[in-house]
Amino acid sequence: MPWSPTGSRPRRSWRPSAFPSGCNGVSAPAPLNSLPLFVRLAGRAVILVGEGEAAAAKRRLLERAGARIVGEDEAAAVLAIVADDEAAVARLKARGVLVNAVDRPELCDFTLPAIVDRDPVLIAIGTGGVSAGLAAALRQRLEGLLPASLGQLARGLYAARGGLRARFPDGAARRRAIAAALAPGGALDPLDDHGDVEVLAALTGDDGAGAVRRIVLASRDPDDLTLRHARWLAGADRVTHRADVPRAILDRARADAAREATDAPPATAASGERVVDVAMMR
C-alpha cells in the first residue's frame, strides 16, 4: 500500500456491507423463536384461568410440577395459563405476567412442550405452538426408544463422578471415556436398558460380567423389530432362540455370532459375553 503524503498509511474505509452474513462471511445463526427453559415451579404461584378439559389438562400438569395454582388476582404470580379468555390474556400481559394462551400461539409468551419423563432426564419437544399433534407424535416415538431405566443411568453417572475423577484425573481423558461408553453400542449406550449396571465399572472397563438380554417377538417379520432389539441382535456374541423363531430374525445378528436353538434360555452369560435370547410371544 502506498504511503500518504503525510507519511502515514491511509485509513481503510469500513463497509458493513462487505460482511453481510457475519464475520468472515460466515452466516449468522438464525434467531431462536423461543428459548427452552426448565423452570422449577414447586411451591410457586401460577395463575390458571378457564374451565373445561383444556384447563383441566393444564391443571394436572401444574400439579405434577408442584405449582401452587391461583386465580387471576394473585399479585405474586409471574406465569399464567389461560384457556378461552382473551380479555384475561390482555389484563395479565398488562401487568407483566408471562402468559400461555391455550391453542392461541400468536398470544403466547411461552408454550408448554410435549414431555418425555425419565426422571431425572426430562425431554421437552416444542413446535412453538404451531402443531401440538406433531409434538405428541414425536413424544410417542421417543417413548418407545428410551428405556425406563434411563433415569437410573443418569443417577449412576452422577454418583460415579468422584470415582471417575480418581480414575481419569485428566478432564479430556475423562470426557473421552464417558463419550465412548455412551456412544451407540457402548457399554452405557443410553438407548439400551442397563438395569442395575455398575456405572463406574462399565466406564472404567472393570466390569467383566456378561449380560443376557431377552427379546419376545410379537411378529415374525424382521421389519417389526424395535430399534433397540435390532441393535441388541447386531451386537450379540451369542444368540439363543426357540425353534420357531424365523431365520429372517436370526439373520439380523452378526454373521460370526454363535446361534443356539434351545428350550431353556440361559440364566447367565460368560465373562464379557453379550447373549441375546429370542422367543415368540405365546
UniProtKB/TrEMBL annotation:
Gene3D superfamilies: Siroheme synthase, domain 2. One of its GO terms (biological process) is siroheme biosynthetic process. One of its GO terms (molecular function) is precorrin-2 dehydrogenase activity. The keyword Repressor does not apply. SUPFAM superfamilies: NAD(P)-binding Rossmann-fold domains, Siroheme synthase middle domains-like. Its EC number is 1.3.1.76. Coiled coil: none annotated. PANTHER family: SIROHEME BIOSYNTHESIS PROTEIN MET8. This is precorrin-2 dehydrogenase. It comes from Sphingomonas ginsenosidimutans.
